[in-house]
Predict the structure.
Amino acid sequence: TAQFWAALICSMASVSAQSEREILNEFYMATRGDGWENNNGWGGDEVCTWFGVDCIEQDDPNNAGNEGVSSINLSSNNLYGTVPASFW
């Protein structure tokens, strides 16, 4: 277990919105999310509003069929722990 810098590009095209939420909540718990510098929105219903989470929106014609989480940038946010296997 170690403190780490986090900026990830995700490919969750085959994952449902509910599964995205569950995986990200597991990540939050595994990296001590309650102690992050900024955890605004984490745990709420809409993952695309969570701090550091970027999404491809359904109405983006350049990415039809690939909506959902596209990247996560939580650099310098005091994450500490081990990224769970479900994240990969």
Q: What stands out?
A: The helical segments are 17-30. The two ends are 17 Å apart (CA to CA). The mean pLDDT is 79. The longest strand covers residues 68-73.
